[in-house]
Known about the structure:
Blueprint (H helix, E strand, L loop, with lengths): L2 H27 L12 E5 L2 E6 L2 E4 L20 H14 L2 H10 L2 E3 L6 E3 L5 E9 L5 E12 L6 E3 L5 E2 L6
Antiparallel strand pairs: 1-2, 2-3, 4-5, 4-9, 6-7, 7-8
Bound molecules: zinc ion.
Amino acid sequence: MNKNFNMASRQRKYNIDNANSKQKRLDELQPPPYFSTQNGYCKFSYRGVVVERAQGAYQIGRRIVISGFPVASVDGMWTDSSMLKRTIDLGLEQACPERHKAVMEQYRNWKCPSCGSVALVDSKDIHVKWNYVVDSWGKEERVDTGIKLLTCNYCSEEVDSSDIPYVSSDVFL
Ligand SMILES: [Zn+2]
């Protein structure tokens, strides 16, 4: 083996190890986020049906309002994700296609550009961006900027809600 090549690959390995341990130290310093992902909690849309995942179990996260969908078939807690996915698929086959289309547009997923998490675009995560200014009396007041921000539940990143990075809801998370 070429000696230079060997040194280069050793340097690369050193760089990777160093980067990993740096990241690890950073992780240890960082306080746990307010919304913990430790239980694998996630709320997402699967083809317009809102599903909640927590501690390895799944349940429907929001009442299904698609006419024709046999709502009772997806009741309760599910530990087998592929079985729930199949049951939802079957239910949607019986559902009104127009209504399904409308609900799919209502319940969409987005991918956080910062941490890569995929989650439901939930109206409770959208809030007004305020500007804090001091008025002529020296009192602080807040001014509505007209911008609404969507907050990532995993890393607190905020994106402009008029420019949400949507992703498909065809994948069962
Ligand atoms: Zn994030």
